[in-house]
Design goal:
272 residues; mainly alpha; Lysozyme; two-stranded antiparallel ribbon; 9 helices; transmembrane helix; lyase activity
Length: 272
């Protein structure tokens, strides 16, 4: 009898171990199946998302190419947007006016004083750091950041705006998506209200989704807002559509991103 009891005990233990192993194997199979399904699903989904992102950034790069800059607009520079970024950012410093010496052309005229620079001269490494920061944080194709920054600096020079301020507005408004559209009708990089400013786009024969045109019109609106309100803070509140000083934190968000851009690139902030 004792031998039979021991044998029965061993059989019970063996059955318990077998059931435990079978249950463990079943659970592992379920989790493995879920992992396979997730992996296959991501394999189908991620290429689509990646292709969509690449299409957006390709559109940005193509639209900012020299051929898309319409001659005659107030932000057309006629120069190569693919040039070295250090030289592009250096363009934020206005050139000194040429002198007119007395001679056959008549008496010399006093040239107007150069406009006050709106940004410090950036070195090559600083320009590169700025490109890398925007590319990494906002998932913008690196090749698109060069033409984008080049355009922003040139337009900012013409409008007497700090380029880092303009870049910060773009970051908050659209996260650098040139095809962004809001439910209230704001479009493009700087989320310009097309219904209000359609005449500005008609004047240059472009749409709000054209990146260079959007930057040109957006900076024109921002410059006008700053002039009317008398300060950058007031101008930002005006730009976001606030009729008073309370802009629901919009200006603080823009200024915070402006400081992050300066910190990441080592470019000095311009005085407002």
């Amino acid at each position: 009898m004792p031998d039979a009891s021991v044998a029965s005990l061993f059989r019970s233990m063996a059955q318990g171990v077998h059931q435990y192993l079978a249950e463990s194997l079943r659970i592992c199979s379920v989790y493995l199946g879920i992992a396979v399904i997730v992996t296959v699903s991501m394999g189908f989904a991620l290429p689509g998302l990646r292709d969509q992102a690449l299409q957006v950034h390709k559109a940005l790069l193509t639209a900012l190419a020299p051929s898309s800059m319409q001659a005659g607009t107030d932000f057309d520079t006629g120069s190569d947007l693919g040039a070295d970024m250090s030289s592009a950012i250096a363009m934020a410093i206005p050139e000194a006016p040429a002198s007119n010496a007395t001679g056959m052309l008549g008496p010399a005229r006093v040239a107007p004083p150069p406009r006050k620079p709106v940004a410090a001269l950036a070195t090559g490494p600083q320009a590169e750091a700025l490109r890398n920061y925007i590319s990494r944080k906002y998932k913008v194709a690196y090749d698109a950041t060069g033409p984008l920054l080049n355009t922003v600096y040139k337009v900012s020079r013409d409008k007497q705006l700090d380029p880092l301020l303009v870049l910060a507005v773009i970051a908050i408004e659209s996260r650098y998506n040139p095809l962004a559209e809001s439910h209230v009708g704001a479009q493009g990089l700087m989320q310009v209200m097309t219904s209000v400013h359609q005449d500005k786009f008609d004047a240059v024969g472009k749409t709000a989704l054209d990146p260079a045109t959007n930057i040109g019109v957006g900076t024109t609106i921002l410059r006008d807002c700053i002039n009317r309100r008398g300060s950058v803070e007031g101008g930002l509140a005006c730009y976001v559509g606030s009729t008073g000083p309370d802009d629901n934190g919009y200006g603080a968000k823009v200024q915070a991103e402006r400081r992050r851009l300066a910190l990441a690139s080592g470019i000095a902030l311009a005085r407002d």
